[in-house]
Write a structure and sequence with these properties.
Blueprint: E1 2-6, E2 9-13, E3 37-38, E4 43-47, E5 56-58, E6 65-66, E7 71-75, E8 82-84, E9 89-97, E10 101-109, H1 127-136, E11 144-146, E12 160-164, H2 175-178, H3 183-195, E13 201-206, E14 222-227, H4 236-243, E15 252-256, H5 257-269, E16 276-281, E17 289-293, H6 299-303, E18 312-316, E19 323-324, E20 334-339, H7 349-356, H8 367-372, H9 379-388, H10 391-396, H11 408-414, H12 420-436
Parallel strand pairs: 2-14, 3-17, 12-13, 12-15, 13-14, 16-20
Antiparallel strand pairs: 1-2, 4-10, 5-7, 6-9, 7-8, 9-10, 11-15, 16-17, 18-19, 18-20
Helix pairs in contact: 3-5
């Protein structure tokens, strides 16, 4: 590993040690040179799964008009943390499960709706005011804390923050395109992240990227990691494990580059951005494009006139970990449309053998498994520890730095059942419950 001084911090050249896999997803690929299309769908929704156990206190009622970016609910156990409206519109449905668990809040778009404006001036004066502004504007939820992969607690201070400036998931949009022309917003956002931690802020970028944005916010705590643009190294978990491992007493945060720009824009304008950049692609797509749409956008509307004839499945997320759903997920920046018809091709003999094996399916040691975890940690040992529920070994091998999405490539390679990503998420939930009790 080479260490070279640069303006605003240090640069770590890593790609010579990194391995990964290329997942061949057939179908058209979004072209970076094609103009980005804006598509605000007529309906949008914020939803949660049963595993999220998101208990909320509503701030709006059904049939109420709301401005884009206006608070709509608070977290019941952490009332300072707020979620905001994804677009200007009318609250159509508020669906809460028993215990005020969020199921779905749906909105209808209003063309002449307003935008809610915040007052960022006080946030310049103290770290507490900065945290309060991020929580009130909903941008706190863009941060993800490791271990456990949840939004940070209000008083939590990270040992380090990782900015995801590249995304290597199949068909993913380049984060650099999402902030093109917004370098000053990124610089302001990085400056605010530095106020949230006494540790370093890592700006992760592809190895062929330019100088980046650190020069706009010079600080000796900014570390730039130039990473091989091969999956799974576009996922922050492996970089966290390698450079600043998360522990129960020393959490580490990560955040997408576009959300860093959103924080910078909030300080400049007092407004929460209306859209995010997503890729719309997959084998069942006829017109793969980069789109700008609101959070929680209606996937059926995005698919209209852009997919092939016949049955298909719209996934919120990449082909590896995406879920079939109606609305764009909170952290998702991809819509992957897959063919739903049964394949005429027979399974490879190895896949057939695994499907007929006793449960859980055995792991066949191959080089692909090591590459699926980027060569960053002992892959087989970690997967076996997860399969048998050995928390001590999994923790020692780096599980606390990872979240479920970090193991989806391993699921793809091993045909695992149950999926190792789900086993990791379940293990982290159990550890979190023990820590809270």
């Amino acid at each position: 590993m080479a260490l070279n001084p640069i303006i605003g911090g240090a640069i770590f050249v890593l790609w010579n040690r990194q391995t990964g896999l290329t997942v061949d997803v057939r179908g058209p690929v979004p072209a970076a040179h094609v103009p980005v299309e804006h598509n605000i769908t007529e309906e949008a929704a914020l939803s949660a799964s049963a595993d999220d156990d998101l208990r909320v206190t509503m701030l709006v009622d059904e049939d109420q008009l709301v401005a884009q970016g206006a608070p709509i609910f608070r977290l019941r156990h952490h009332p300072d943390i707020v979620q905001v409206a994804p677009m200007a519109g009318r609250v159509a449905v508020v669906d809460l499960a028993p215990g005020r668990r969020l199921s779905e809040i749906r909105f209808f778009h209003e063309n002449d709706g307003d935008r809610h404006q915040y007052a960022p001036n006080a946030a310049h004066k103290s770290g507490d005011a900065l945290r309060l502004l991020l929580m009130e504007s909903g941008l706190w939820l863009a941060l993800r804390s490791r271990p456990f992969g949840r939004a940070p607690l209000p008083g939590e201070e990270p040992a380090a923050i990782f900015i995801a400036g590249l995304d290597t998931k199949p068909l993913a949009p380049n984060p650099a395109l999402s902030v093109k022309g917004r370098e000053e917003d990124v610089a302001r956002g990085i400056a605010q992240l530095l106020r949230l931690t006494h540790g370093p802020v890592y700006l992760c970028q592809a190895g062929d990227a330019g100088e980046g944005f650190a020069e706009f916010a010079p600080n000796d705590r900014i570390r730039r990691l130039k990473v091989a643009p091969v999956h799974p190294w576009g996922l922050p978990g492996f970089l966290v494990h390698q450079h600043h491992p998360a522990t129960l007493s020393r959490p580490v945060w990560d955040i997408h580059l576009e959300d860093v720009a959103a924080i910078g824009a909030l300080f400049a304008t007092g407004l929460v951005p209306q859209t995010r950049l997503i890729s719309f692609a997959g084998p069942a797509v006829t017109d793969a494009r980069l789109l700008r749409c609101q959070p929680g956008a209606d996937l059926r509307s995005l698919c209209y006139g852009r997919v092939t004839h016949g049955p298909h499945i719209a996934l919120s997320g990449s082909p590896l970990e995406g879920r079939a759903r109606r609305w764009l997920g909170a952290r998702d920046r991809q819509v992957s449309v897959m063919n739903a018809g049964a394949s005429d091709q027979r399974d490879h003999w190895l896949v057939s053998a695994l499907k007929q094996a006793s449960r859980p399916r055995p792991i066949i040691p191959t080089a692909a498994i090591e590459r699926a975890l980027g060569g960053a940690l002992p892959a087989l040992a970690l997967l076996r520890a997860l399969a048998v529920g050995d928390r001590e070994t999994a923790t020692r091998l780096g599980a606390l730095s990872l979240v479920g999405e970090d193991l989806t490539l391993a699921d793809y390679v091993t045909c695992a059942a149950p999926r190792h990503s789900a086993l990791l998420d379940n293990m982290l939930r159990e550890i979190a419950k023990e820590e809270a009790s």
